[in-house]
Structures are given as C-alpha cells and as structure tokens.
Amino acid sequence: MKVNRAEILRQLEACSPGLSNTDNIEQANCFMLTPGRIVTFNDEICCTHDTTLTLTCAVPAKPLLETLRKLSEDEVDIEYKEDRLLLKCANVRKIGINVHADVVSHAEAVEPPGEWIDVPPVFADALAMVAEAAAKESDQFSLCCVQISPNGMQATDSFQAIRYKLPCPVTKNILVKKTACAAVNGLGIACMSETPNWVHWKTYTGLQVSVRKYAEEFPDLGEIFRADSVGTLRFPHSLIDSLQKAAAFLADTGSGKQAVLRLKTNKLMIRGQNENGFYEEIRDIAYDGPSISFGINPKYVQTLLKHDYPCNLTDSALRIRGESFSYITSKENVL
C-alpha cells in the first residue's frame, strides 16, 4: 500500500520512547504492527499510535527509521512479503527489511486506560520542567522520579528541587520515572487516565503513552521551600548568551547539564568545566552579599530570564519563584 512517508515516520518516531535494546523483553527493539496500530513496549513505557498501515509483523526499529529518514520521496509503497518489509519508491529503488512474522504481545500486560480526564494545557510543559530536576541515576529510587499529586508535581536530586502547582487527575501521590516523563517531551498532553499500575497520557496528535507508576516514599521538601529569604537577586539577561558560549564545557551531572555560578560583590562569574576543558566569564551584577557558589541547570535560567522572575537567597539555597512553580538549588560558601 502507498503511504505518506513523512506521516508514517512521524507516527513511528512518536512511538520510539517505548523501544529498548534490552534482552529481557522479546521484540523490545521493534515496532509491533497490527492492522491500524503501531505499538512499542519496553516494560516501563508502552506507546500506541493509530496508523493507516494494515500489516501484521514486528519490524526492527533502527533500519526502518534510518531508511525512512534518508529517503526523499513523499510517497512510499510498503508491503509485507516473505518475512520482509518491502519499501518501494517510484520504481527507482526497493528496500527489504527482515522482520518477525509473529508479533509478541507483551504490551497486553499494560492495563487498558479507563476514563480519560482532561488536563491543563500547561501539563506537558510542567512535567518536562519538573523532570529536569530529578536524578538520572541514584541509589535512592525516588530521586529518579517525579512525584505527581492531586495538587501538582515535584522532583529533587538532593541538590536541587522543584515544585509545580496545578491540578492533576490522580487519586493519591504517585511516582513516575524521569525517563518515562521524557516520552512526552515536546508533546502536548490532552488528557490522562490512571489505572492500578499505570498512568496513561494521550497527546493532541493521537499518541497514547502508558508508563508504570510507583507508590514509594518521596522526600519531604516542605522545609526547604518554606525557608525565609535573606536577600534578593536578579540575573542579567546576558546570562543566556554566556551559558550558550559555555555549553561545550558544562558538566554532565547525575541530573543533566550544570553550570556553576559564583557571586561576589557586584560580580557574577559563569563557569563550566568538564573533560573538554573550562569556560569562565565575569559579568557585572547588582549584588552586595557574601561570596557564594551554586550549580544550576541552564534550562531553568532560560525560564527565569524569559519571565524576569526574581531570585531569593536563603541561608542554604538560591530560590526562584514563578507564577506556578518554585525552584531551589543548594549553595555553598566560597573564597
């Protein structure tokens, strides 16, 4: 059958977060095709998307994606024949990808969603913003998760923390892995459904993402968010340009890229250092206080400067308060 190459590629790429190269789950590295549906499942994330394809087979994801990305034709003829997926382009070229004839239905372990409940339009952006503060790796499981509660979301890696207030359609506090949240980065979430072991999100583009939920304890962050302010601070708008120049030298920490900002009287130093070397830049700033240093995720700086949010200094942290969120990063005294 002839299909629009760009549209099929969009559907496949949307399901990519459910892929994995793990040996524990058969066909975890494949797009599982059944008539009208694309499914990927890696035991933690399940992605489902409607499609015009009417084939039944499991296609290795890497060769299919790479082929469709490199082709220039608007239309591709796709058929399944003799354990191969055949892609034909206007009688010019023909590609055959070896596939599995039988589709393993591991995704049946995912509970089907129940009632879909609309979420605020900002939900997806808030989820991505909060997930940035969770750890990529940690011996403490909860630090690698976002906690979603009826009143909002929060995350911490023990050095930084963020809370975002918005109504969430869950019955009680749950945890979702940071890596699972990445499955909907850049996508608008229209609605959500909760089942005993899974959280389901549906995007405006028709993608359905189901992620495992957990009920483990989460650190109590109340005290650090309630700490009294001992001073205020406003960063110069030129800080974004400085961080972009330092990007190649920013440390890759357990939570992501991090810049070090050092404050002295009327001076701000931006520093990045990793295996490539280091970058330093000094900017003038209105500041009259003790010399301090703290690390910060550049993505939060962009949000801060875009909306001109003020910063508060507490005895132990730098705190940024926006309209619906509060972000904190630990500070330390320096010479």
Short account of what is shown:
This protein is α+β, with helices and mostly antiparallel strands.
Which properties best describe this structure?
DNA Polymerase III, Chain A, domain 2, 13-stranded antiparallel beta sheet, elongated, eight-stranded antiparallel beta sheet, alpha+beta
Name the CATH superfamily classification of the largest domain.
Answer: DNA Polymerase III, subunit A, domain 2
Largest sheet: 13 strands, antiparallel
Strand fraction equals 35-45%
The termini sit apart by: 69 Å
CATH architecture of the largest domain: Roll
Question: Helical percent range?
Answer: 10-25%
Main structural class: alpha+beta
How many strands?
A: 25
Average pLDDT score? 89
Low-confidence stretches: none
Annotated CATH topology of the largest domain = DNA Polymerase III, Chain A, domain 2
* CATH structural class of the largest domain: Alpha Beta
Number of helices: 7
Question: What gross morphology would you assign?
Answer: elongated
Please tell me how large the radius of gyration is.
Answer: 23 Å
As for the number of domains, it is 3
